[in-house]
Amino acid sequence: MANTACFIIVGRNDIPIYEAEVGSAPKREDAAQLHQFILHAALDVVQDLAWTTSAMSAKLPSFLVVLLNPLYLPGSRITSSHFDTKVRALARKYL
Amino acid sequence: MVEPVNSSLGKMLLEEVSPVVMVLCTPLVEETFLKNGLSFVETLKPFCNFSNIDVPVRTSGDQLYRLKKFMLRLFNAADIRQPNVEVAKQRLEHVITQAGEKVFHDLKSDPPQITDILSNSESEIAPTWFQYYNKELIRTLSFSDHEAFDHPVACLLVVSSKDEDPLNKFVDLFNTNRLPSLLNDGVMDPKILKHFLLVHDNQDATTERTSKVLSEMRSTFGNNECNLLCTNSSKEGNVEHQANPWASFKSSVPAEKLGCALTGDDIGEIKDLMQEFASRHIIPYMEQKVRDLNQQISATRKGLRNQIKNLWWRKGKDDIPDSTKGSIYTFSSTESQIRILGDYAFMLHDYELALSSYRLISTDYKLDKAWKHYAGVQEMMGLAYFISDQSIKEAEYCMENASSTYMKLGKSGFQNATRCGLWWAEMLKARDQYKEAASVYFRICGEEPLHAAVMLEQASYCFVLTKPAMLHKYGFHLVLSGDHYKICDQVNHAIRTYRSAISVYESTTWSHIKDHVYFHIGQWYAIVGMNDVAVRNMLRVLDCGNQSKSTQEIFLRDFFDIVKKTGMKHEVVGLRLPVINMSSLQVIYEDHRTYASQASALVEESIWQSLEDDIIPSLNSGKSNWLELQSKLLPKKYKESNVCVVGESVKLDLEFRNPLLISTSVTSVSLICELTENSDDLKLVEKETSSLSLGTEHNQVTTSGFSSFTLSEVDFTLGGGEKKLVRLTVTPSEEGVLKIVGVRWELSGSIVGVHYFQSVPTKAKTNKAKRKNKLTPTDPLKFLVIKSLPRLEGSVDHLPDKLYAGDLRYLVLELKNNSESPIKNLKMKISHPRFVNPESHEEELTPGFPDCLKKGPEQNTVQRETSRTSVFEFPKDVSLQGDRSLRWPLWLRAAIPGTISLYFTIYYEMENVSSIMKYRTLRMHYSLQVLPSLETSFEITPSPSRLQEFLVRMDIVNRANSDSFEIHQLSTVGCRWGISLLQPVDTILPSKSILPGQGLSCFFMIKDCRKPGTEEEKTTSILPSQTDIKLITQDDDEKLFDIVNSPLASFHESERSCHGTSDQLSPNTVDFILISRLAKSSNPSAEQDLPKILSHHSCHNRIRSSIPLSWSLDGPKTMYHDFSTSFCEIKLKMVIRNTSDGFLSVSINTIDGLPDAAAPTPSSGNLSGWRYVPAITEEMKLTSDVMRSRLGKPPPSMESSPPFIWSGSSSTKVQIQPLSTTEIPVQISVFSPGVYNLCSYTLTWELSEHENASSSTSSGICQGYPCYLTVLQSE
C-alpha cells in the first residue's frame, strides 16, 4: 500500500467520472474498493471545502479542459486515453 | 442546547459520580428479599435516585445551597473491587449478542431510507442498547485506585430479625477480614459512616423479637444510626405493581414476578428509608468531611509558604522511580485527601471547590509523573467545567489532555481512555459538536474488533447528526463497523450496519463500493438463513463488469450457491445479467406488408412506400390509409394498435450483453406475452400487466386456459463482454389483442430473469401510424391479431450477388401462396427497371438461355410495343392458391457498376376473404454488387469522301480486375444505320479476348440508310441493311443476337431513356450495342455463376465534326472527249449538307489559274497524266487544318495538273436549312486530256441561329479537297 494512490474525479451527484490508480506497489485485490470507500467518505470534506474556498477550481487547468469540451456529457465517464496519460504523468511528477 | 445537568452526560455523571454505599448483609436478609425475586441491593436500587431531594448543603464557604438531584450507589461489599478484565469483556460481549438477537427480526425489512434517517432525532437513530453498553463499559473501570468517587462513603449493615444474635451479627459484618481488600489495602478509607438496619420479614418473623432487637441495637449503636425495615407484607406474595420499579433494572426475570410480596406500604417504607438515609446521614456526613478536608488542606497546602514547601519537597522526590503501577498514594496521603475532597465536592455539586482541588492536585501529580492520577484528575476537571457550564475550551482541553495522557500509558490506560472518550464525546454531543464527537469515538476504537465496531457505529451516527449531515462518512463508518462486527461473528450487527449503509450507497455509481456492500450483506443474510433476502441483495452485484475476473467468479459462485440453498426458482425482475439494450429493440411484424426475407424487413419503410405509391389502391380520395378503414370497422381503442395476422409470427430483435468477463450461458429466452380476446376485457389485461408481481405466470392467456400463441425459445452463451442480437418470436394462433410485455430468461436453471418493456419508444416499423397521428403514438408492442389470411411467399431464383456490368441473366421469380384461399390481381413494381425486366408471359424458354436471344431463321423484325409503365401487371387470369407456384421469368441486366439495392414489391388482393385487410404486399429486397467490365466509347466522324458515310472509332477498355472478355457482336440500333467492317475481323483482335486493363480501338464504317434528301424518318420502308457485325471468327455457324426483340431491345430502351437528355431529339445520333462474353478460359470454376452474355449499350453517340457542313463534288470520274473538236465542258454537282441545327449560308468561290498552274506536262499522246491516286481511306482525319496545310503546299502531283477553268459562276451563295442537303451545279472546262484535281475552290460558311439572321454565330472557310477527274481523248 505504500506507494499507491488513487485519483478520482467526481462529478455532480457524487458520480465518479474518472478513476486512476497510480503508484508502483503491487496491486492488492481489495485496494480498489478500499480506495473508493476512502475517497467516497472524503467527499463530505470536499463538499465543505468547496463552499468555503475558491482554491479548488482554479488549480486544475488540465481538468477544466475536459469539462469545457462541448462534446462532454455531464456525468458521463472520461474515457480519453490522452487524458489518462496526462494524469499519470502529473502523478509521477508530484508523488 | 440543553443545560449540561440535563444532558445525557449530566445524567451519566449523576449515575456514575455519586456516593457509594457499601452494603453488608446476612444471608437471611438476602433470603427474605429473594422471595421477591430480588436481592437486597436490587430491592433498594430503584429508590436510590432522588430527583428532588432538596437538602441544604454548605461546604467550604458560608454559602448554603440546596441539592436537588441526588443519587446513591449501592454495592454489596463483595462487589467493591476492581472487576476482572476477562469477565467484564464477556459481559460486554453478552450485551452485544443480546442486542443482536433482538434486532434479528428487523433485518428482514427493507433498509431505511436516507430521508427517514435524516429526519430522525438522535435517540431514534442510535440503537438504545448503546447507552447500556457504554454504561457497562464505564463500569469495567469501577473502583480504580487512582480515583476517589468510587470510594464508599457509607456502609449499610443489614441484619434480619430472624438472625440469631443480631447484635453480634452487626459486629461480625464489619469485621475487617470480610471487608473488601481495597479498604484493607489502604487504597480506600475504612473509617466510614456506618448505618445499621434491621430487616423484619412480615411473613415469618415475630414483631416482638424484632422490636426487642431494635431497642438493643439502638442502645448499642446509637439511636440515629439504627433503622427498622419491615417487608414482605403480602402474605400470598401475588402483588402486581402497575409500573414495576424494578423492571428496568432486572430484565432476566419476568417483570410481574418482581416484588410480588411487597405491598405499596412496603415500597413506601423503603422509599422513606432511603430518603432519610441520604438526607440525614450521607449528605451531612459528606458535608462534614468536605469541610474538614478543606480546612486541613488549606492549612498544609494553601498559601505561598506551603506552596514553596510543597515544591521543594516534590523536587526532592524526583529520583523516586516512576511508579504508575503500584499506588504510591494511600488514602491518607495528602494527594489522596485532596482528590477525595475534590470528588466529594463534585458529588455534592460544589464544582468550584472540586475544580480548585483538582487543579491543586493536578500539578502535584504532574510533578510526580503519576500520569494515571494526573489524567484522572484532568478528566474530572473537564467534567466539572462542563457540568458547571463554564469555559467550553477549558473543558475540552482537559478532556483532550486526559485522553492523550491515558493513551500514553499504553494498554493499561486504554480502558480509561475509552471512558474518558465516551464522556468527552457526550460532552461534544451536548454542545452539538457531532463531527468532533465522531472523531473522539474514532480515537477510542482500539484494537479489539468488537469494541471498535461499537465505537465506529457510534461515530457513524454522529456524522448523520452533524449539520449538514455527512452522509458519506456515515456510510463509510457503518461499513467499517460492520466489517468489525463480522470479524467477531456478530453477523446480526454486521447486517444491521450494512443495511443502514445501503441507504447511503443505494444509488451510487461507485461500483466497487456498491459491489462490496451488496455482496457482503448478501453473504451474511445467507449465514443467518435469510436466503431470499440474500438473493435479493446479491442480485445487485451481478453486473460487476468492472471487477477482476476472479472476483466475478466468486460473486457468481456464491450467488448461485445461495440460490441453490433456497431451493426454488427465483423470478427476478430487472436482472442485470445479461444486460438488455433497450435501444436495440426492434419489432418486425407483418400486417398488410409482408416481407420475403429478413433483409427486406429491415429496409426503411419510406423506400417501400415510395415504391408502392402507384400500386396500392387509394381509398377515399387517396387521403386515407388502411388505418382509417379499420377505424370504421373497429372500436376506437384498437385504432392505436398494430395489426398482425393469426399464424404469422411477430419477431422481436433484442440485444443481450454480457457485462462480465466470464462467459455466461443464458437459456430459455422467450418473450412474455398476453393475448386477450377482442371483447371488453381489455381492462383485465391492463391490470395484469401493471401488477408485475413475482411468480406470476404471464405466458398464459388471461381469458382461456390453453395457450393461444406459441413462443420461440432461444439458448445461447455469451462470452466475456460479448453482445448478441437475439431474435425472439411469438406466433398468435387466435384472434385478439396481443401484447408483448417483456422478455424472460434463465440462468443456470434456477434464476429466471424478467425484463418488462415499459412502453418504450422503439424503432418498430410504425411509420404509417407515425405519419398519420403523431400526437398519439401507437404502442409498438401491442397488436391486434386478425383472422388468418393468405400470405404470398416469393423469391427470385439464382439471383447472383456479384456480377459484371452488362451481364444479362435469365431469372425466375417464384411466387407461392400456401393458403387455400386464392389471391388475385397481382401487380409488381421494381425499383430499378433498368436492371430488371419481367417477361410478358409465363413461359419457359424453349431453346434455353442465351440461345433464345439469337436470331431465328425467320427474321422477326416486328417492333415491340414500347409502352413502358413502371408497374408490371400480371395477367388477370393469374391466381395463386394451395401448392401451385407461379414461376415468372425475369430478365436481369446489370446496367451500371456499383452496389445496387433491388426492391421488388408485389401487390395482391385476397379473394373470398372477408377481412379488414383487402390486399397485401410482398416486399423483396436483393442487393447486387456489380463489377465494372468492358467500357465502350464511340467516336463518329463524317467520311470525307462520302456524304452518308461515317467513320466510327470504338474504344474498348476492360475495367475488370481479373476476367478477360471476348467481343461477340456489334450492332447499331434501328434500321437507319448500316454498319460494316473496315478491316478483317482477325486483324482487329488477334488474341480474341481483351485482358484485364487492356484497351482496344477499332474502326468501322456506318452508313446512313435513309434516302438522301428526305428528312422524314420513314426508314422502315427501306430494305434493312446490315446492322450487325459478328466480331468472332472461330465458329461461323454461330448466330447473331437479336437486338430488336426483348429483352435486349427493352433494356436498350431503358438505357436510352436513362441517358436521354437534350440530345434525345437530335436525329444525328447512333446507338450501339456491343455484345461480349466472358473469355472461356479465364475462370474454369463456378460454371453456374458465369455470365453468359454481356451487353453494352452506348446511346446517343453524336457525329463529331468541327464544321457544320459536309459536301462532295459529284460527277463522272472518267470522261472521254474529242479535244480536236472543242474543249470539254464537264457538269458536276456539288452536294452540300448542313449537318448542324442552325441555318447555314455557304458561298462557293472557285479559283481559276493556280499561280503555279504550269502547262500540262507534255503528254506523250497517251496516259501522260496518269499516276497512282491513293484511295482516300477512312483513316484520313478530315480536319480543316490538314486541309489547309495541304493547300498551302500542294502535293507535287498537283503541280503537274493541267489547267482547267471553272466555267460556271465564280461565286455562288446558298442558304441551307438545318439538317438538309442542297445541290449546286458547277461546271469546268478542260482543254486537254489528263487528270485534274478539282480542289481549287473554297467554301465560306456562316452559321446563324435563325433564318436571315444578321448576326452569325460562327463562320469559316473550307478548302476544297482533292477530287480527281480523268479526261481522256475519245477515239
UniProtKB/TrEMBL annotation, chain A:
Signal peptide: none annotated. One of its GO terms (cellular component) is cytoplasm. Pfam families: Sedlin_N. GO terms for biological process: endoplasmic reticulum to Golgi vesicle-mediated transport. CDD domains: TRAPPC2_sedlin. This is Trafficking protein particle complex subunit.
TrEMBL record, chain B:
Residues 605-763 form the TPPC8 first Ig-like domain. Residues 1111-1242 form the TPPC8 C-terminal Ig-like domain. InterPro entries: Ig_TPPC8_1st, Ig_TPPC8_2nd, Ig_TPPC8_C, TPR-like_helical_dom_sf, TRAPP_III_complex_Trs85. Residues 806-922 form the TPPC8 second Ig-like domain. It comes from the Eukaryota. This is Trafficking protein particle complex subunit 11 domain-containing protein. It comes from Brassica cretica (Mustard). The lineage of its organism: Eukaryota, Viridiplantae, Streptophyta, Embryophyta, Tracheophyta.
